[in-house]
Design goal:
The protein is of the alpha+beta class. It folds into two domains: 5-144, Jelly Rolls; 148-223, Orthogonal Bundle (Arc Repressor Mutant, subunit A). The chain is built from nine helices and eleven strands. Strands 1-8-3-6 form a four-stranded antiparallel beta sheet. A four-stranded antiparallel beta sheet has the order 2-7-4-5. Strands 9-11-10 form a three-stranded antiparallel beta sheet. Strand 4 (58-65) and strand 5 (68-76) form a beta hairpin. Helix 4 packs across helix 5 and helix 6 (149-161) crosses helix 8. The longest helix is centred in the middle third of the chain and has 27 residues, at 120-146. The protein starts with a helix and ends in an 8-residue tail after the last helix.
Length: 225
């Protein structure tokens, strides 16, 4: 489906409240590109030449080799990818691999830095974005340090559902292997956890996790009805 650049910019959450003149400056410097599933947007160690906005699709942020790869996080449509390397003129600490077909906005890093330095509205938007990402990162670190595999999967599903009660469907942004790497467990461990979470009303259907009731999912596994 064809989409105009101005419409695409409006789909990026961090840009949604920017004044029209600032959006016009972004539009004047940005481009769009379609990227196939499995392609790499950028690699660990490369310097950031662009700021990428995900209009469609999802990516996995990975580190390590094919044989020992960790998925640091998943990023979905509406997000900006890793703004700090572009602002700091620093190399990426992870790679970004498309887990679905993408439509991305590409903003040259030089122009993006200029706008952040000159326009208070986009500077404030980036501060809010990075503060939110910092909180998410800290939460992931805490989960990985103190929780077992079942609890990590439960917390991931609850976080992705975006609410605390009622039924929900969480679509995987990548494969179950990617999710296992993100949670810091083996694929077979994830499979066992998923089987145990069936007692809390969780089912895996293709790329979806179907949750009967999020309030029930938050119960301790041993007391599930």
């Amino acid at each position: 489906m064809f989409i105009e650049l101005n419409q695409a910019l409006g789909k990026i959450a961090a840009f949604s409240k920017l004044p029209a003149p600032v959006l016009a400056q972004l539009q004047a410097t940005a481009g769009m590109q379609r990227v196939s599933k499995g392609s790499v947007l950028f690699r660990e160690g490369e310097r950031a030449d662009f700021v990428y906005g995900l209009v469609e699709g999802a990516v996995a942020l990975t580190s390590g080799t094919d044989h020992d790869e960790t998925v640091a996080d998943f990023m979905a449509a509406g997000e900006l990818l890793l703004v700090p390397p572009a602002l700091l003129r620093a190399p990426y600490m992870v790679s970004a691999e498309a887990t679905r077909d993408l439509l991305v906005i590409m903003i040259p890093a030089v122009e993006f830095r200029r706008l952040v330095e000159e326009e208070i509205s986009i500077c404030a938007a980036m501060n809010h974005l990075m503060a939110r990402h910092w909180r998410l990162l800290l939460r992931q670190v805490i989960h990985a340090k103190i929780h077992d595999a079942d609890t990590r999967l439960k917390n991931y599903l609850i976080d992705q559902a975006g609410k605390s009660s009622g039924p929900a469907t969480v679509r995987l942004p990548g494969s179950k292997k990617d999710l296992a790497a993100h949670l810091g467990v083996r694929s077979e461990t994830l499979s066992r956890s998923l089987k145990r979470l069936a007692a809390l009303g969780v089912r895996s259907i293709g790329s979806d996790f179907v949750i009967d009731d999020l309030a029930r999912l938050q119960q301790p596994l041993r007391t599930a009805a």
